[in-house]
Structures are given as C-alpha cells and as structure tokens.
Amino acid sequence: AQSVTQPDIHITVSEGASLELRCNYSYGATPYLFWYVQSPGQGLQLLLKYFSGDTLVQGIKGFEAEFKRSQSSFNLRKPSVHWSDAAEYFCAVGVNDRAGSYQLTFGKGTKLSVIP
Amino acid sequence: ETGVTQTPRHLVMGMTNKKSLKCEQHLGHNAMYWYKQSAKKPLELMFVYNFKEQTENNSVPSRFSPECPNSSHLFLHLHTLQPEDSALYLCASSPGTGGEQFFGPGTRLTVL
Prior knowledge:
The complex is a heterodimer of chains A (116) and B (112). With 116 residues, chain A is an all-beta fold.
C-alpha cells in the first residue's frame, strides 16, 4: 500500500526567507503527487500537482515542487515566504486502487509559521 | 455557487441525535469523497462514490451512513455518535479517473 511521510511537523521561517517542505512517498509505480494547503478552519486548496513529464512543477502562490524518483521525494519550495503563507501543508499521493476507485493518501502535514 | 460547498459549517450534537451533513459539487465531477480530519492525525478517507455507486468504505462504523443520490450531491447521515467522532469532516470531488481532488470548506462537528 502507498504511504506518505512528511518528516517535519512544524517549521518556522522569517518572512522573506526561503522555504522547503519535505515529502517522501512509498509506492511501487510512478504516482500522481500533490501538495495542498489548509488555512485554519478551511478545506484544502491544491497548490500543485505532478502526473508525468517535467519533474519540476510550478504551482500557485509562487510555489514549486521537484519530483525525484531516485529519492521517492516531492519537496515543496518557495524562494521568499510571505506572512500569508502561514498554514498547514499536506503532501498526497494518488493511486488508482481498482477500476473506478481512485484515492489520495495524505501525509500528516507540516505546519508553517512565519515570523514577521 | 462554485466549487464544492458543505453545509452546515459547524454542528454540535448530542450522542443520541440524528443529523446529516450535506456536500454539493458544481464542477461536473463523477467521484465524491468523505474524509475525517482529527487533530494530530492524517486525513482519513471514509467513503468513495463514483457515478453514484459506493466504491470504497474504509471500515467506517455503521453510525456513519453515506448517501449519494446523484453525482452532484453527497450526504453523511450521523446517528448515535461518540465524542471521539468530533472532527472536521471534509467532502471532495474529482473527475473520477484520477487527478486532483477539490475540497469543500468542511463541517466542524462536535459531539457532546
């Protein structure tokens, strides 16, 4: 079965600093990979996705992520963090389990705090 | 309305009550999902519906009963809940054959 590990529970960065959130997955084939962001009391918003092709993907709000097959990783990056980026970030892997059933498996999330 | 909507946004209920959560998607998707999000736990997939048919029940207790009357609407009927069922319940939809899921804002449920 697939799994997702986000090793950092909580990260604090200063506004304007660069950011990297780590994500490792376990799956036998090339999965679909996603990063979502969740503000307090809200649902999840898709930041970016990887299905195939270019391993560096661009998302919304200035985020990007790089798929590294050899490391089973899909780390999220942003060159300069804004205070509004403070939220919880979830990495997910998408798998077609059986005909007609497609599921996302999520990591436990990384909470990002931003110091003004 | 656009995207995925959920009502109510907040719900407080006693253990003997019966209530329902509603989800509606305006995206033309074929698959809909219920997730449970508790503090300090990863999102737990509860149910999957594809073209109105339930394709996944992730060992969810029978006190949670889903209903999908059409591809745009999904309900979660609740009865005889326990305090540990207090959580944020998220609904999502997807085109059905893969890709990203689009989430609603969630219903914050508190069971007293």
